[in-house]
Known about the structure:
5% of the residues lie in helices and 43% in strands. By secondary structure, it is mainly beta. Strands 13, 14, 15, 16, 17, 18, 19 and 20 form an eight-stranded antiparallel β-sheet that branches. The chain has a six-stranded antiparallel β-sheet with strand order 1-2-32-31-30-29, with no helix packed on it.
Amino acid sequence: MAEGKCTRVIILLLTAVVLTSCSVDNSRSSRSGEIQREILEVSSDTAGLIVKAVEATGTASAAKPVEPTTTLEPKPIPIVPLSEGGPWLIYLKDGELVVVNSDGAGRTILDLPKVSEEMADILVLEDSISPRGDIFAVRLEREGQVGWDLWLISLPDGYARIITSLLSSEEEEKVVRGVSEEVKEAVLERHAMQWSPDGTNLAFVAALDGPSADIYIYKTWNDEIKRLTTGSNQAASPFWSNDGNWIVHQEIERFGAFGEWDAVATWAASPDGSTVLYLYGLPRGKGREFYIGGSEGGLIVYRWFEEERGLYHVDLKSSVVTTLYEGLVYSVAMDPKSGAVAFTAGDKMNPRLYWIDPKVGALKLVIEEPCSYVRWDEAYGEFVGNFDLMFFEVSVEGVLLESGNFGDPTTSPNGEWVAWITDSLELTSLDKEGYKVDVEYPLLFWSPDSTGLVYLDEKDLWYLSMADGEASLLDRSTDIYARYDGAVFMISVVGIGWLDGE
Length: 502
């Protein structure tokens, strides 16, 4: 029976590393440039924000400091409509979905039912936003009654409509009586929907034609909804193959807390409904599979079961499963083009960095020192991560390119800026003046056009312009947060996402 858009990073809780203060190597990455900090005297009554100029070249010319915010109220933003072409930022605040332009202007509250606390916990906009860039889908609970609907929203007009209910009237009545919990769990599982790579079809889990949850597809081009799977157990976690030819999913007998499911098998359904392939059975016992990503007809999966844990490659044409690594894996990243995989695994106190090309199958140890995580950087086309609190870069071929520099870098989509997270947020560039923000370990969200950086400080949402380093407070006390998914702790950010627009 019945299991996205971005490669998902899996990190075990026991590998979480709290960065502590330490000395910084004077030499930055060649992409970041040599930097020189200019200390500014700032009064302590600012709104928790101190912006400091950082000179990109290290020359003697003085960098012009950006004045810090001096009020607890949000900086006035021009009242303008949403831009026609985007990009647009969506975020959750007080149970309402808010949309703004990339610079924070055009604030619009969408006319939707309030997002309940239960539904907010599954609002992973990474899965909700179509790659088309102008539409997204959300699951919302009906106000004042039992029932959940799948909504489609378009921008910039903000037009919202219900595509379908997620449960038949019979199943809704069972939920009221408390006798259809497994169906409800399947329909409201955090990753129970995903857009096709071209953004025209939405795969989702619903129970509309019987007593179990199945995989359905919604076709935006003709407004058609089609059931793809059947069976007595529940379908879960739909995941599109890179070529858009298959929707991989798991068959679940019973759901459990922290991702400890009673999984039965993994299947693949064709979007036209003509074929449903049995790929393989899953180990008995509590656990589940996590889909990392795929390329050229293959899929990388991580299994976390009581009796079996490891990283595998699945050939969707032949159903052949190849073991890449046996044992506990802490974080995984994949290059979606080549299919190369880097991951941290081994001793929980000393996880090492490995690399493998599934097409060749040769496992390579890249870094022996303890590595806290690894991820794929699309802008640079490299694997990046942290070991011993230091940054590293690894090529697609598994070659360690360089290491050093204290911090956790995130590259802008155009590759022009690097945001370094230590005990503050530092923006560096090869040919432009950089900026520094006095904020500890924020969540970062680059605008798709790289003109600005949105960051979450505690629950407050800020926008930092790359043109002049000016920071604006978008909203206080938002409903945005990062959380762990299941027993392997796949990290998801709830309540925020970008639409690319045109």
